[in-house]
Amino acid sequence: MKDxxxxxxxxxxxxxxxxxxxxxxxxxxxxxHGYRGPIVVTIETEDGSVPEFPFLIKSAxxxxxxxxxxxxxxxxxxxxxxxxxxxxxxxxxxxxxLQPNAYASIEFTVTHPNYHHRGFPRGFGPTDADDPxxxxxxxxxxxxxxxxxxxxxxxxxxxxxxxAPDSNEHFNGKMQLWQERFNLGKTIxxxxxxxxxxxxxxFSKRMQQRVIEKYQPIFRAWYYGVPETDCWNKMTCQExxxxxxxxxxxxx
Length: 252
Known about the structure:
The chain is of the alpha+beta class. 41% of the residues lie in helices and 23% in strands. It contains six helices and eleven strands. Strands 6-3-9-10 form a four-stranded antiparallel sheet. Strands 7-2-11 form a three-stranded mixed sheet, with no helix packed on it. Strands 1-8 form a two-stranded antiparallel sheet. A hairpin with a 2-residue loop joins strand 9 (104-112) and strand 10. The chain is globular.
């Protein structure tokens, strides 16, 4: 029995020594200790175009709370830039998981002046160190997002036209029209703010100036193309959306 134990211990240390000598310890031991990655991310555009400026990709791991993510970043925080169709590698890293072999929720937030700013959450299980995980995200032109919100407003308008003036359907359609027209302006303003405060600071002054020169007139046209200003109170919503914007375009 003692000989068996000695043999088992000897085998363990032989494996451990081999790991350190061959730099393969990660492959043998890390699978049960929370490692994720490397993760190779590729950004594709829905319209198939390759924009002049790169995408900014932020990664963040968040621990799960109950049935969904808490929304609190705990680790794996990286900022990387990549052009469309250009794979970019996020490194292999040991995450502080509650359960080592559990799926880890990592969200990649993609930002670009011409595309809709959004996050892409993905679950990652443990993998061997030599196995990169390839994922592709498809982003939508911001003009398509504008059309989507404008379409919701148009649905409200159609509801009004198809309902009796004193009916609940007519009232509901009117509320949807007003609210979604307001939301369209809010969406445009939020996009401009994100590019100004989140995207631009990650680039050189020269690159920032190039982005501003190209998108300043585009953003200005989007901003003034939707005149409504304030719809927090639905009783005065109609009054507001019929007025020109009260706030001047601040620009990038």
